[in-house]
Design brief:
Oligomer: single chain
Low-confidence stretches: none
Shape: globular
Helix content: 25-40%
Largest sheet: 9 strands, antiparallel
Order of helices and strands: EHHEEHEEHHEEHEEH
Mean pLDDT: 96
Number of helices: 7
CATH architecture: 2-Layer Sandwich
CATH topology: Alpha-Beta Plaits
Number of domains: 1
Distance between the termini: 31 Å
Radius of gyration: 18 Å
Length: about 220
């Protein structure tokens, strides 16, 4: 895993112009999107979203290695913008979530549950959402916050098959974080989220929607 990463989750919906095409034309659009999205980032993963959300058809997860000063961000976003402009007749952006990785102040070292977009190992299902804490959370002492996070982390370790990637978005988008998960078992993930609702840290959550659930597709599956 790169020490610091820039990750972008972009969701799209097909337009009426796309659905007016015959099947060969629609396949050509999907081929163009897949080819150009993959070329625009160091790592690209594709997901179908509909019918998990009624407003979204697919998600593109793009990742780049990033330095401490984030100087790569302009080139990454400029390149992505340039290729995605060519899709606009046939798809419209629904949502973009992005941020940088960094070392957590609450967890000790790396975990086997860390998601790494650069390892080439993708699970069948992907979930992401924007996340923010309350103002009161940041006014608590570090010891108090650490205690609540220890409970949160301990519970997460009871589900070792579920992997997580946390992006920091402070001052970059409306949310403070973007939380992403990968798993093979959606009911198990739903149980984890339900169990986390009962932790003390839940009192200090101010935002954790909208939620995006996608099914991983290879390039060939996405185009087909």
């Amino acid at each position: 895993m790169a020490d610091r990463q820039l990750n972008l989750y972009a969701t799209y919906a097909y337009t009426d112009a796309y659905f007016a095409l015959d099947e060969a034309g629609r396949r050509a659009v999907r081929q163009q999107i897949a080819d150009e999205a993959i070329a625009a980032a160091e790592v690209t993963n594709l997901y179908t979203v509909f019918p998990a959300r009624s407003d979204t058809d697919f998600l593109v997860w793009s990742a780049w290695g990033a330095s401490e000063d984030g100087r790569e961000t302009e080139a990454a976003f400029t390149g992505y913008h340039a290729v995605s402009e060519g899709w606009r007749k046939f798809v419209r952006p629904v949502q973009t979530l992005w941020g940088y990785t960094r070392v957590s102040q609450y967890a000790r070292g790396k975990s086997e549950q860390d998601m790494d977009p650069f390892d080439g190992e993708r699970a069948s299902y992907f979930v992401a959402y924007p996340f923010s804490k309350t103002k009161e959370w940041y006014l608590m002492s570090m010891d108090a916050r650490q205690g609540q996070m220890n409970e949160h982390i301990k519970l997460g370790k009871q589900f070792p098959e579920i992997k997580q990637l946390l992006l920091y978005s402070f001052g970059l988008q409306d949310q403070e974080f973007v939380v992403a998960y990968e798993m093979e078992n959606l009911p198990q993930f739903s149980k984890l989220v339900n169990d986390l609702r009962g932790t003390e840290a839940r009192r200090h959550t101010s935002l954790d929607t909208p939620l995006i659930t996608g099914i991983h597709r290879t390039k060939e599956e996405f185009v087909r």
